[in-house]
Amino acid sequence: MKIRRIFLGAALAVLLLIVAFFGVRSSFPRPFLEEVRASGLHPSLVYAVMRAESGFDERAVSSAGAVGLMQLMPATAQFICAREGIVYEESRLTEGAYNLKLGLLYLKYLLERFPVEETAIVAYNAGEGAVREWLADAAYSADGRTLKKIPYPETARYLKKITKIKKFYDFFY
């Protein structure tokens, strides 16, 4: 009888852990999975950016004017379209697939420019120009590749947020 109760208790505990795992995992969705996988970028990074930027809201528009899932500034989207030979349509920036395509290309562009992932993430938030200035300044970078200090508190918080969300995606998927 005692062994049976212990077994049932252990089985119930395992069942509760499974339910909790999948319950929390459902808070970390993966929309556009095929497109994300096809991009060649680490899916956890892409989903961390998407979650932090828009909370997966395709129609999100920030007070600064960033638009869509990946919260692209229209000028950034226009730059990526010109660079990649894609027709730029500002009215489509709130379409998930279009915004994601441009956001993936922009993230890939930043990762080419800044091979250290954390630096590329910082550039996604603060802008490529600002990050180049920081990397050239010994007060912020010792090696010109990584940042030892981020002068914008919002951007420092953004990097921590992306890193945390990315860890959750790595764990769940």
Topology:
Elements: H1 2-25, H2 33-38, H3 43-54, H4 74-84, H5 96-113, H6 117-126, H7 128-136, H8 153-172
Helix pairs in contact: 3-8, 4-5, 5-6, 6-7, 6-8
Short characterization:
This protein is an all-alpha fold.
Question: Care to describe what's here?
Answer:
This protein has 2 domains: 1-29; 31-172, Lysozyme, CATH 1.10.530. Helices cover 64% and strands 0% of the residues. The protein has helices at 2-25, 33-38, 43-54, 74-84, 96-113, 117-126, 128-136, 153-172. The radius of gyration is 20 Å and the shape is globular. The relative contact order is 0.12.
Number of structural domains: 2
**What is the C-level CATH assignment of the largest domain?**
Mainly Alpha
Mean pLDDT: 93
Helix tally equals 8
Largest sheet: none
Give short descriptive properties of this protein.
173 residues; 2 domains; Lysozyme; 8 helices
